[in-house]
């Protein structure tokens, strides 16, 4: 069960074939768990969009859909398709680069490279004309506006520092074929590095839902893909490119690296990545090497799905992220980490950023992460030095103090005494902490570790998965 909003995702691959489709491919099946024992009602909702404004697809699982409504839905799905097919986008790109510089226009409003005959349609739009040099076209992530306002598709681009760290590390481990899932900046940097010729060549296949990239990358290096339902939009053709990529040289040099939107649900993501691993496994033994980039407070959820993964201390940096920037500005430190089935001891974290090797844990840890002999681990998740609390029997954040009335460590200004009227752990008024059914949940501790609760602005509940008022996915 994901979150405590009473909404659970049901993963049923066979059923996906019969799942109704929205413009984002097969919808996901959810169960709204009722109070007590009774079985909850199931419904389908869009897999990709958390904001109803982006996709309002909703259908009760037991609902009968009339033929008329079905047809209207298919029509709606067609109307939401990108303006051009991938092939058309590719030939437009060839036409575009053959234009003299002064005739090249990029429409900022439409996020589209426009050809001379189309200029009239974009007359009232904002256009870039000076800057569409070949050099610029090699960095589409700089030309396109990051999709940052839309909740469902927030695009946070890696800082160069993190791109080069990742690529050098992967090269060092012998990987040369990188499956980039939702990492357009990484794909771009791989291509740039190949052109510069300073480091060994790498191959990259980008899978992403952002169709604007069809303008810049051909079908052999970019598949329009939804990572929440493992859906390829150009069905057969794209699937072939994907399978060929995984099979190249027997797949021995392939590693998958993904940086999903942080609002995404963990279970459907893990299911998609497992499907990829199955395709890869047709050729190989063992597990497909994977790196899943996600905030540290999702650790237990990811490990629930992939028990063989470990979380590394490396803090991933972003360029345009208002909160997660490296250094003194913005937030103190990035909460975004690498989760991987590669062996942690092989992943050498940069010494000049303070990381060092813990020989007991056999992995590289952040500067402030001191090994605790009592916990027998380097316990810090956020990079700060944690402190062992004997009463709690575990290490806690440095800002926490042991509270004897709550019986555990908490922030000094925690809502103490509120547990008098209800449960400190889950907030329920029906039982006390002692009787809390969720008390043994390791995940709860981690959620307490978050800097701040996430409050839904529609229904005002905290840390829920799905807002029943606006049908928005939240965590
Ligand atoms: N740090 C990465 C970008 C991560 S932002 C980089 O610098 O390359 C998340 C990415 O996932 C975006 O590129 C976004 O377009 C993509 N994305 C969002 N929802 C998706 C979905 N449902 N399926 C596939 N990709 C998705
Ligand atoms: Zn250690
Ligand atoms: Zn400890
Ligand atoms: Zn304590
Ligand atoms: Zn809400």
TrEMBL record:
Identify the species of origin.
Sinocyclocheilus rhinocerous
Similarity comment: Belongs to the ZCCHC4 family.
The role this protein plays is: rRNA N6-methyltransferase that specifically methylates the adenine in position 4220 of 28S rRNA. N6-methylation of adenine(4220) in 28S rRNA is required for translation.
Tell me the ranges covered by the CCHC-type domain, including all copies. 423-438
Q: What is this protein called?
A: rRNA N(6)-adenosine-methyltransferase ZCCHC4
Span of domain GRF-type:
22-64
Domain CTCHY-type, chain residue ranges per copy: 353-414
Q: One GO CC term of this entry?
A: cytoplasm
Q: Which UniProt keywords apply?
A: Cytoplasm, Metal-binding, Methyltransferase, Nucleus, S-adenosyl-L-methionine, Transferase, Zinc, Zinc-finger
Database matches in Pfam families: N6-adenineMlase (PF10237), Zn_ribbon_GRF (PF06839)
């Amino acid at each position: 069960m994901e979150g405590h909003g009473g909404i659970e995702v049901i993963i049923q691959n066979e059923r996906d074939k019969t799942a109704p489709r929205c413009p984002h491919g097969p919808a996901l099946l959810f169960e709204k768990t009722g109070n007590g024992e009774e079985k909850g009602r199931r419904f389908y909702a869009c897999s990709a969009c958390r904001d109803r404004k982006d996709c309002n697809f909703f259908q009760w699982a037991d609902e009968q859909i009339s033929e008329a409504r079905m047809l209207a839905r298919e029509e709606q799905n067609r109307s939401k398709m990108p303006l051009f097919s991938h092939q058309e986008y590719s030939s437009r790109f060839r036409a575009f680069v053959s234009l003299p510089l002064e005739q090249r226009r990029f429409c900022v409003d439409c996020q589209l490279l426009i050809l001379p005959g189309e200029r009239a349609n974009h007359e009232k739009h904002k256009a870039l004309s000076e800057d569409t040099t070949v050099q610029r076209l090699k960095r589409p992530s700089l030309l396109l506006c990051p999709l940052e306002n839309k909740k469902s598709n927030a695009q946070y681009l890696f800082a160069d520092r993190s791109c080069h760290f990742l690529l050098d590390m992967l090269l060092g481990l012998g990987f040369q074929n990188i499956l980039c899932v939702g990492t357009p900046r990484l794909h771009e940097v791989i291509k740039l590095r190949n052109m510069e010729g300073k480091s060994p060549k790498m191959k990259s296949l980008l899978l992403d839902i952002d169709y604007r990239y069809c303008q810049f990358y051909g079908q052999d290096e970019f598949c329009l893909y939804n990572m929440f339902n493992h859906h390829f939009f150009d069905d057969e053709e794209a699937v072939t490119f994907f399978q060929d990529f995984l099979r190249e040289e027997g797949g021995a040099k392939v590693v998958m690296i993904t940086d999903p939107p942080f609002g995404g649900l963990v279970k459907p993501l893990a299911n998609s990545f497992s499907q990829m691993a199955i395709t890869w496994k047709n050729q190989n033994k063992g597990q497909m090497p994977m790196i899943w980039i996600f905030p540290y407070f999702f650790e237990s959820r990811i490990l629930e799905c992939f028990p063989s993964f470990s979380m590394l201390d490396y803090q991933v940096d972003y360029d345009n992220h208002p909160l997660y920037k490296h250094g003194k500005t913005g937030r103190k430190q990035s909460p975004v980490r690498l989760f991987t089935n590669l062996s942690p001891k092989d992943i050498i974290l940069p010494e000049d950023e303070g990381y060092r090797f813990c020989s007991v844990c056999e992995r590289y840890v952040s500067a402030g992460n001191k090994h605790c002999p009592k916990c027998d681990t380097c316990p810090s998740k956020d990079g700060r030095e944690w402190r062992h609390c004997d009463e709690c029997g575990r290490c806690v954040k440095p800002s926490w103090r042991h509270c004897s009335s709550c019986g555990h460590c908490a922030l000094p200004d925690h809502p103490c005494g509120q547990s008098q009227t209800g449960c400190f752990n889950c907030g329920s008024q029906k039982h006390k902490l002692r009787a809390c059914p969720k008390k043994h949940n390791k995940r709860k501790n981690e959620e307490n570790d978050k800097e701040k609760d996430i409050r839904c602005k529609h229904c005002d509940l905290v840390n829920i998965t799905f807002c029943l008022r606006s049908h928005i996915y939240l965590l």
